[in-house]
Write a structure and sequence with these properties.
The complex is a heterotrimer of chains A (about 425), B (about 280) and C (about 325). By secondary structure, chain A is α/β, with parallel strands linked by helices. Chain A folds into 2 domains: about 190 residues, D-Maltodextrin-Binding Protein, domain 2; about 200 residues, D-Maltodextrin-Binding Protein, domain 2 (3-Layer(aba) Sandwich). In chain A, about 40% of the residues lie in helices and about 15% in strands. Chain B is mainly α and about 280 residues long. Chain B has 2 domains: about 70 residues, no CATH class; about 210 residues, MetI-like fold. A two-stranded antiparallel ribbon of chain B has the order 1-2. In chain B, a hairpin with a 2-residue loop joins strand 1 and strand 2. Chain B is globular and about 70 Å long. Chain B starts with 16 loop residues before the first helix and ends with a helix. Chain C is an all-alpha fold and about 325 residues long. In chain C, strands 1-2 form a two-stranded antiparallel ribbon. In chain C, helix 5 crosses helix 11 and helix 11 runs antiparallel to helix 14. The chains are: A alpha/beta (about 425), B mainly alpha (about 280), C mainly alpha (about 325). Chain C: Its main location: membrane. Chain C: Keywords: Cell membrane, Membrane, Transmembrane, Transmembrane helix, Transport. Chain C: It is found in: Cell membrane. Chain C: This is Sugar ABC transporter permease.
């Protein structure tokens, strides 16, 4: 019997050992994941999850963090680079469990409504995080709002524009970038005829890149006010028909598994004359044979307009948000404020070429950057997406149907009807026509 | 060295030239298919960072710039260390735990041994990935989030059922007389297992080690979810080279080659035992 | 407190083997304990780890599948926010939703999952057997061939898949370079759902052959040579020797590797996702990738994902029970 007892004790020891080792091995500062602690216990260390490009952009943010720590010597920032593809899932798992979540997170603007509706991120109105708010551009500021409260602070902004290769345009005798989708199709035909081996454009099958076409016809995913799914409205059908026409007439054939890479490569090596793209891609463009050493060859224009005559593209970019369960909200607010200040934004813009979200950050110095100068006027065409928590879920069915349409496996109407049906499942209370 | 597995049937002197040619031809084609993708990555990694777009350019621009970036200017060395810790510990723990369980099931007719074998199979049927959030919460409660131990234990749950199942089969092939001898010498069952059986089971253990190591070395989803970037493993870490919208394939290929090297070394160490080890388990499973 | 919640299920499952035999008398329990504690001690580490990290979450998943839990209605205890759970018991509703085909996705996904599994396992097995038989002959450079052929197994799967993705690129991939240099038209290898399906099966076979080959090679080596000699003596042709000696001799290995690789292929998550990326029509999703998508795009649907997980488990349990039962009488 004594042996038996020792075996039980051994088993127990394993379980306990497991727990104990875990406790000592972990270096996270959180303890019970819940109730706000009294301010005296604040340790002064905050964790920041950065999603910027680890190779080209992150060093700028890391340098800024050094400055922050110098300014506030009692606060230490634990910098973590999390890759953009993983961050949503990773943050949500950590946020709901209360363990392993960062205090401050850099997040895609499209995720703010989702995080806010799930109570993962803290409202920032009246906190130190938001300072000098009238200085922020309206578009980016708009992305931080959910149900009347502010859940983020704009850090960088972007939108989609039309990037074009001026050399190819000159060779084809085109003097100005197209201003409507039909012009884009016509110009592509000219290019194809006059510049051998070059195609007009490369359509990105990611549904985010469908927005400019949708907006151009006044269409959108859904109408939150009327509680209606609008992705199969006549306007949307018209828009996607146009997109399909662009693909059929003006685009290189998409490689669906490597669309983004091939699109970029084709453009930067001069096989494609124009792209609907965002400012984040310019750095990569400049490494290609078409633009390396001749940055001036890259032209910037707003996205073409649809039949409504309006050229519009979604507001993108990144906001800083504060985790609701942060043990050190005060330090988090200060950090957020510091990183989004005009001075910080000027540094970031200067080093990374991303667009600031503050009016005052567009200094003459910053505007010397050609990407920023090129995209600044385009920002006027940016408009927010519908602020629905489920927006992230809507992209998948839309994308799948869009690809079927592009591949000719579904008609535009059928594809969008199918997408609308899926939207209906994801948006409770919404009507689907 | 192939002589370690003597041929068991039929003299083969009489194979015709044509047959020999066909045999070698088939094997060469198959080998090329097996090896080409790996060599291709190696080839691309030696070019400039955009080499994947212009493979024919690689030979004109051979260089180690991708490796230089990966080794000197990224967190690769840190991830590498983390991966070594995690994979090493998973291997040791996985082999120990599955060997002792495999031995118990092979030698001791205790109530529940059948259920246990069945359980090992069932654990591999459920797609744990869909429960990653409950699993996260569980690990958080145990304070195992972002710890090596947590990840090691999770990897053991993947590796151990297969390994224990396999080792049970291997132990079955070791004559029971040896156990008897141990008992006569006054060894405890565990002593018998540890002193007499384990040394004889080396091929089986080698395969188990290989399998456990590879499981931990190449796993992405759990590592990405549970570990912060300081404790990130290679497979999860190199994702920062290739996000959806800014893929740095140059670094990616160099990192892939560097990741494949230790895995291949482990493979070379155990490959002698691979055939005997794996099948003994398989035949009796 | 953290361990308290854990102890329950852990102890429950861990203790199941001991408690299972004949209920009742303390003495019989004690006797069985005295007899078997050694075995139980040796299996305890496995049982505890599996109970805590697999069976507890699995049980929890089974529970979730009977509710309508999703990310919006589970309990939240984040900083100043304390919201109780508002999801509720829905019985078998989720299963009905899936199995009746009302969600519209289950049967198409199941169909492709079955095609994928059968194709992968059958082809992988055939090629593995072929290679094993070649390697089992006396042949020069055998070690070299063997090392080459096992290579795909020695390299982490995601690297292999990554290599294939680069090579299959329609514009910049080496395959099309080779093809066009010989004058053939370039192919869009990953261009349509059908070609994508062929491609993922192909890559999965590439990854899976070495395991099969090694296992079957061992199986071939364990067939006593006398059997072949006897068959040859009886005048059996090579083909007859294959069917009458090799195939029956391999049966034990075959039954195991086929079962295992069916289970693994059915739930093979990484290859499809890594090879095709996000821009798919959804036709190439197998059940497990579909469930994963459900769980992780946008607001997570915990209960639906768990339901799919359990359905997958049940399908595989049913299959393996059936499979082993089929094999047993023949084996005897």
């Amino acid at each position: 019997m004594r042996r038996g007892i020792s075996a039980v004790a051994m088993a127990a020891a394993i379980v306990l050992g497991v727990t104990a080792c875990g406790g000592s091995g972990s270096d996270d500062t959180s303890d019970k994941g819940a109730a706000a602690k009294d301010p005296a216990a604040v340790s002064g260390t905050i964790t920041y999850w950065d999603t910027s490009d680890a190779k080209n952009e992150a060093p700028t943010y890391q340098a800024l963090i050094k400055d922050f720590e110098a300014k506030y010597p009692k606060i230490k920032v634990n910098y973590q680079n999390v890759d953009f593809g993983t961050v949503e899932q990773k943050f949500k798992a950590a946020a709901q469990s209360g363990k392993g979540a960062p205090d401050v997170i850099r997040t895609d603007v499209g995720l703010i409504p989702e995080y806010a509706s799930l109570h993962y991120i803290a409202p920032l109105d009246g906190t130190a995080a938001l300072s000098d708010t009238q200085d922020f551009l309206a578009g980016p500021m708009n992305t931080t709002k959910y149900e009347g409260k502010t859940y983020g602070v704009p850090s960088v902004t972007d939108t989609l524009g039309l990037l074009y290769n001026k050399d190819i345009f000159a060779k084809a005798g085109i003097t100005a970038p197209p201003t409507t989708w039909d012009e884009l199709i016509a110009d592509s035909a000219t290019i194809k005829a006059k510049v051998p081996g070059v195609a007009g454009t490369y359509v990105n099958p990611d549904s985010y890149f469908l927005f400019p076409v949708l907006f151009g016809e006044g269409a959108d995913l859904a109408d939150p006010a009327g509680k209606k799914v609008t992705i199969n409205s006549p306007e949307a059908v018209k828009a996607v028909t146009e997109a399909k026409k662009i693909y059929d007439t003006s685009s290189l054939k998409i490689d669906f598994a490597s669309a983004y890479d091939n699109m970029q490569t084709s453009f930067k090596t001069g096989k494609v004359a124009m792209l609907i793209q965002g400012p984040w891609s310019v750095g990569d463009d400049l490494t290609g044979s078409a633009f390396q050493g001749k940055e001036s060859n890259l032209g910037y224009a707003p996205v073409p307009a649809g039949s409504t005559g309006k050229a519009q593209a979604p507001t993108g970019g990144h906001d800083l948000a504060v985790y609701q369960g942060s043990k050190n909200l005060d330090a988090s607010y200060l950090f957020t404020q510091f990183m989004t200040s005009s001075a910080s934004q000027q540094t970031i813009a200067g080093k990374n070429g991303t667009l600031p979200t503050r009016t005052s950050a567009y200094t003459p110095e910053v505007l010397k950057n050609q990407t920023i100068a090129g995209f600044k006027p385009i920002m006027d065409t940016a408009r927010p997406r519908v602020a629905l928590p489920q927006v992230g879920s809507l992209f998948t069915p839309l994308q799948q149907e869009y690809i079927k349409i592009l591949q000719g496996k579904s008609s535009v109407q059928d594809g969008l009807d199918a997408a609308a049906k899926e939207f209906g499942k994801l948006l409770p209370g919404y009507t689907v026509q | 060295m192939t002589a370690t597995t003597p041929l068991k049937y039929r003299g083969r002197g009489e194979r015709s030239r044509g047959a020999s040619l066909a045999l070698h031809g088939t094997l060469i084609v198959a080998s090329v298919i097996a090896v080409f993708p790996v060599l291709w990555i190696l080839f691309i990694s030696l070019g400039p960072s955009s080499a994947w777009q212009q493979p024919h350019e690689v030979l004109h621009h051979l260089g180690l710039s991708n490796y230089r970036f990966v080794l000197l200017h990224s967190d690769f060395p840190k991830w590498f260390r983390n991966s070594l810790i995690v994979a090493g510990a998973t291997t040791v723990l996985g082999v120990l735990v599955s060997a002792s369980a495999g031995y118990a099931i092979s030698r001791m007719r205790f109530p529940g041994h059948r259920t246990l074998m069945w359980t090992f199979l069932v654990t591999q049927m459920f797609p744990m990935a869909v429960l990653i959030v409950p699993l996260y919460n569980l690990l958080a409660q145990l304070d195992l989030i972002d710890t090596y131990l947590g990840l090691i234990l999770v990897y053991c749950t993947i590796a151990v059922p297969f390994c224990a199942w396999m080792l049970k089969g291997y132990f079955d092939t070791i004559p029971r007389d040896i156990d008897e001898a141990g008992r006569v010498d006054g060894l405890t069952p565990f002593g018998t297992f540890w002193r007499l059986i384990v040394p004889l089971a080396r091929p089986g253990l080698a395969v188990t080690a290989f399998y456990s190591f590879l499981t931990a070395w190449g796993e992405v989803a759990y590592a990405a979810q549970f570990m912060s970037s300081d404790h990130s493993t290679l497979a999860a870490g190199i994702r920062t080279f290739a996000s959806d919208q800014r893929a740095d394939w140059g670094s990616m290929t160099a990192a892939s080659v560097l990741i494949a090297i230790p895995a291949s070394l482990v493979f070379l160490l155990v490959q002698r035992h691979l055939v005997t080890g794996l099948t003994a388990g398989g035949t009796k499973g | 407190m953290t361990t308290a919640t854990m102890d329950d299920p852990a102890a429950g499952t861990a203790a199941r083997p001991p408690r299972e035999p004949r209920p009742g008398l303390m003495t019989s329990i004690r006797r069985s304990w005295d007899r078997y504690w050694y075995a139980w001690a040796m299996i305890a580490p496995v049982v505890i780890v599996l109970a805590v990290l697999v069976f507890y979450p699995l049980g929890y998943g089974a529970y979730l599948s009977l509710t309508n839990a999703n990310e919006t209605n589970v309990a939240k205890d984040i900083g100043p926010v304390h919201i109780g759970a508002t999801y509720h018991w829905v019985g078998l509703h989720n299963y009905w939703q899936v199995l009746s085909g009302r969600d519209g996705d289950f049967y198409p996904r199941l169909e492709w999952t079955l095609v994928w599994t059968v194709a992968c396992v059958a082809i992988t097995y055939s090629i593995g057997l072929g290679m094993a038989m070649l390697l089992n002959r006396k042949v020069k450079f055998r070690l070299f061939y063997r090392l080459c052929l096992i290579m795909p197994w020695a390299v982490p799967a995601f690297i292999g898949v990554f290599a294939w993705r680069l090579m299959l690129n329609s514009q910049y991939g080496v395959f099309n370079d080779i093809i066009t240099s010989v004058g053939l038209p370039a192919q869009d290898w990953l261009g349509s759902p059908l070609s994508q399906k062929i491609a993922v099966i192909m890559v999965n076979i590439w990854v899976g052959v070495p395991f099969m080959m090694v296992a079957l090679l061992g199986g071939l080596q364990s067939i006593p040579g006398e059997l072949y000699e006897a068959a040859e003596m009886d005048g059996a042709s090579p083909r007859q020797r294959f069917w009458n000696v090799t195939v029956p001799g391999l049966r034990p290995v075959t039954s195991t590797v086929v079962l295992l690789s069916t289970v693994w292929t059915f739930n093979m998550f990484a290859i499809i996702y890594l090879l095709l990326g996000n821009n798919t029509t959804g036709d190439t999703d197998i059940l497990v990738t579909y469930a994963y998508e459900k769980a992780f795009t946008g607001v997570s649907d915990y209960s639906a994902a768990a339901t799919y997980g359990i359905v997958i488990l049940l399908i595989l349990v049913a299959f393996s029970t059936f499979y082993r039962r089929q094999l047993k009488p023949e084996q005897a």
